């Protein structure tokens, strides 16, 4: 008689885990938000971060890219390397790669 | 100045003709590989000229990224043709591209300072536009091998990015 009870509890736990994963798709265990660059695309293109959280770009391409905000900041992301930025309050921005301006992304600061 | 403009226009026309003329005859995969590789080598050579001549930081940074990016893609292309057992085959389109590029480089070599920067960047806009049109209209649709087609599609994204980068630098030079 104990078995069904345990199963139900497992179901609740795994249901809770699934919910957490679905709510924060780009969030890793260490609290950094990852953006992968592959084949000249930012993935995911749109991310939501909190002020003070780290955004990490993982460049899987063989060429250098940038995350550039027009008239604002720029992060250089060398080929095959990662680069980071700590999100600031005013970082709800559109950004692009200055070397390949057809690559576009968006950051939204959430409370 | 006038003769320079005429020479520039005719070089451009030659490139346009080189790329669009064989449209009736679909290039084979070995020919496509050769054309794409040659297009990359041409841009690397022109960028090296810019690196040796220009003193403008934006132009030099652009030229360096052309060297780095095209080298990276051409290394991928070489690895792919080796894997596929394909030997790139020289052809009329590749030869016309190289001839036009040699003429263009000779012409750019005579210019200095901001005249060089402006002409180099304008040529980069035009050159990438031509290559992109050829990739979209002819090379990608003609490619038979799926991996070659995929690499050409990545190349198209890259070259479209270069065209926009060149357009941004051109706007800054004005």
From TrEMBL, chain A:
One Pfam entry name: Cupredoxin_1
Residue ranges occupied by any EfeO-type cupredoxin-like domain in the UniProt entry: 13-109
SUPFAM superfamilies: Cupredoxins (SSF49503)
Protein name per Swiss-Prot or TrEMBL: Plastocyanin
InterPro entries hit by this protein: Cupredoxin, EfeO_Cupredoxin, ET_Amicyanin
Origin superkingdom: Bacteria
From TrEMBL, chain B:
Protein transport as UniProt keyword: no
Keyword terms: Signal
Family matches, as InterPro entries: DUF4142 (IPR025419), Ferritin-like (IPR012347)
Signal peptide per UniProt: 1-23
Pfam families on file: DUF4142
Taxonomy, superkingdom: Bacteria
Protein name per Swiss-Prot or TrEMBL: Putative membrane protein
Organism for this UniProt entry: Aquamicrobium aerolatum DSM 21857
Lineage summary: Bacteria, Pseudomonadati, Pseudomonadota, Alphaproteobacteria, Hyphomicrobiales
């Amino acid at each position: 008689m104990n078995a069904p009870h345990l199963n139900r509890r497992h179901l609740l736990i795994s249901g809770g885990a699934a919910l957490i994963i679905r709510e924060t798709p780009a969030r890793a265990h260490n609290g950094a938000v990852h953006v992968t660059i592959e084949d000249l695309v930012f993935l995911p293109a749109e991310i939501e971060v909190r002020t003070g959280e780290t955004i990490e770009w993982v460049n899987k391409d063989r060429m250098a890219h940038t995350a550039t905000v027009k008239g604002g900041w720029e992060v250089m992301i060398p080929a095959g390397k990662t680069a980071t930025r700590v999100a600031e309050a005013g970082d709800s921005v559109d950004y692009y790669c200055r070397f390949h301006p057809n690559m576009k992304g968006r950051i939204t600061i959430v409370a | 100045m006038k003769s320079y403009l005429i020479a520039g226009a005719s070089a451009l026309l030659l490139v346009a003709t080189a790329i669009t003329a064989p449209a009736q005859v679909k290039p084979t995969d070995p020919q496509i590989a050769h054309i794409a590789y040659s297009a990359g080598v041409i841009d690397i050579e022109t960028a090296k000229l810019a690196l040796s001549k220009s003193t403008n930081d934006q132009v030099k940074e652009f030229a360096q990224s052309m060297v780095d990016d095209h080298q990276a893609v051409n290394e991928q292309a070489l690895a792919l043709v080796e894997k596929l057992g394909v030997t790139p085959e020289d052809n009329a389109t590749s030869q016309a591209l190289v001839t036009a590029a040699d003429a263009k480089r000779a012409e750019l070599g005579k210019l200095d300072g901001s005249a060089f920067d402006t002409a180099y960047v304008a040529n980069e806009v035009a050159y990438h536009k031509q290559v992109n049109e050829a990739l979209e209209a002819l090379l990608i649709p003609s490619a038979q091998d799926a991996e070659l087609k995929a690499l050409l599609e990545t190349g198209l994204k890259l070259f479209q990015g270069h065209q926009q980068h060149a357009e941004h630098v051109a706007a800054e030079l004005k």
